[in-house]
Design brief:
binds adenosine-5'-triphosphate; four-stranded antiparallel beta sheet; Rossmann fold; alpha/beta; 7 helices; 10 strands; binds magnesium ion
Length: 232
């Protein structure tokens, strides 16, 4: 067995809201290897997004450990955590125009980088767009793209910094099942070709079945790990 890229141990997240405690993730342990494609399924409110946000360094765990490439990330100070997000993680969200866990200012600051991008970065972006079937769409405003095209742009954006880990939260929930399956297929192909570890949250069992492994969550607990169809 290769050394896992990510080891999650006894991970817990408790939210406090209006004096109430919500245990969103409870004592979750599992590990993942480079190149793997995992799906996380489970009912609404079962803690899927919370787990993904902790893996991505967007949310600090209440307790437990997340070790990525030998480094404990759950206790990183804010600046190092931002560095981890920038260098190691690519995000694809359902609402792809804004990063929900970043502040309004941070979302805006992301745009600053565009002016600073040289020809190499532009070439890399165009290459990614071409691989995702969007060669002719590189100069089109996102508002004029279809839902499936937008999600493919989001995949390209997630891969742009060459992260080791790609995290996708319900990337196909606003697509019909045919287009959704196409987007997941492309996500798998792009990530496998680059040996990325990919974790995709989905409500859709058919999409989940395309993964190597399926993690099932229920009420904050990891209740099952199943083999998907991609498992060799
Ligand atoms: N910021 C927050 N403050 C308080 N409670 C929260 C917060 N975010 C999530 N929760 C609660 O934590 C639990 C898990 O939420 P989470 O968003 O992780 O679920 P999910 O599995 O992603 O659900 P869905 O499938 O609907 O997206 C829910 O009970 C939710 O209400
Ligand atoms: Mg969610």
């Amino acid at each position: 067995m290769p050394e896992p890229l990510v080891s999650v141990t006894h991970l817990t997240k408790t939210y406090e809201s209006d004096g109430n405690e919500v245990q969103a993730v409870r004592d979750v342990s599992f590990s993942m290897e480079a190149g793997e494609f995992l799906a996380i399924v489970g009912p609404s409110g079962s803690g899927k997004t919370t787990l993904l946000a902790m893996l991505g360094g967007l949310l600090t765990p209440s307790s437990g450990s997340i070790i990525v490439a030998g480094r404990e990330i759950s206790t990183l100070p804010p600046r190092a955590r931002a560095g981890y997000r920038r260098t190691t993680v690519g995000f694809i969200f359902q609402q792809l125009n804004l990063f929900p866990y970043l502040t309004a200012r941070e979302n805006v600051l992301l745009m600053r980088a565009i002016g600073a991008c040289g020809p190499d970065a532009t070439r890399q972006a165009d290459q990614l767009l071409a691989e995702l079937g969007l060669k002719e769409r590189a100069n089109t405003q996102v508002s004029r793209l279809s839902g499936g095209e937008r999600q493919r742009v989001a995949i390209a954006r997630a891969l742009m910094n060459d992260p080791a880990i790609v995290l996708a939260d319900e990337p196909t929930s606003n697509l019909d099942s045919v287009r959704g399956a196409q987007v997941v297929r492309m996500l798998i192909d792009e990530c496998k070709a680059r040996n990325k570890l990919t974790v995709m949250v989905t409500h859709d069992r058919e999409m989940a079945d395309m993964a190597d492994r399926i993690l099932e969550m229920h009420d904050g607990h990891l209740t099952g790990v199943l083999a998907g169809s991609a498992a060799g």
